[in-house]
Design goal:
Helices cover about 20% and strands about 30% of the residues. By secondary structure, the protein is of the alpha+beta class. Helix 1 packs across helix 2.
């Protein structure tokens, strides 16, 4: 039996949402990683954002609690704030 253990990354910045999900472009703005939706669209389509460790080119990608995304060396994790 093979067991995979995933280390908890202490470098993750929690991004608390009160909805079921948040779209990737909105998450970048909500995290203050970018100033506008237009900038978010550009960096996503340029392949500069990773979701759960893989490059994501979909700006409307839905991120749920426990999903992670990375941009310019910062790593974020979507968390629920418990108000759903």
């Amino acid at each position: 039996m093979k067991v995979t253990v995933k280390k908890k990354d202490a470098n993750l910045i929690p991004l608390a949402i009160s909805t079921e999900f948040i779209k990737l472009d909105a998450a970048l703005k909500f995290a203050n990683a970018l100033e506008s939706g237009g900038m978010a669209k550009t960096v996503i389509l340029d392949g500069k954002v990773k979701v759960n460790g893989e490059v994501c080119l979909m700006r409307g990608k839905k991120l749920y609690p426990m999903d992670t995304f990375s941009f310019m060396g910062a790593n974020y994790q979507i968390v629920s704030n418990g108000n759903s």
